[in-house]
Amino acid sequence: MSIEDGKIDNDLLLYVNDWFKKKGVSLICPMCKNSDWSTFDCIVSPVQMIGSEPNLYGRRYPTISIVCENCANVQQFNAIHMGLAKPDLIKPDDNSQSGEKSE
Ligand SMILES: [Zn+2]
To answer: Residues 68-82, buried b or exposed e (16+ Cβ, 10 A)?
Structure first.
């Protein structure tokens, strides 16, 4: 199972649901106590910040996101920790504008 194409299909949803069960993830919304969630149809990723600016060439953290159907609370789960992505898959090919030194 991987997220290389960035889409969340039925197989991936089954994997995520099984992972939630194995980890004992509660699907009760912490804000409104609803238990009806939907899943984003694609992988999303917060980006690294430099000061107050997003570094579009910096590190990325792909996440599986679910949204409460009642109050719109969004919960994010790190796809790397879920075994769906490898850190080397999310590094940008060209980090020459990030200010980082090449190895
Ligand atoms: Zn809620």
So the answer is: beeeeeebebebbeb
Whole-number Å distance between alpha carbons of 103 and 101: 6
Span 3-40, pLDDT tens digits: 667 788 888 899 999 999 999 999 999 999 999 999 98
Q: What is the Å distance from ligand 1's center to 94 Cα?
A: 39
Query: Which residues have CB less than 5 Å away from ligand 1 (the ion)?
Result: 29, 31-32, 34, 68, 70-71, 73
- In angstroms, what is the span from residue 49 Cα to ligand 1's centroid? 28
Give residue 103's pLDDT band: very low, low, confident or very high (50, 70, 90).
Answer: very low
pTM: 0.74
> Distance between CA 98 and CA 76 in Å, rounded?
26
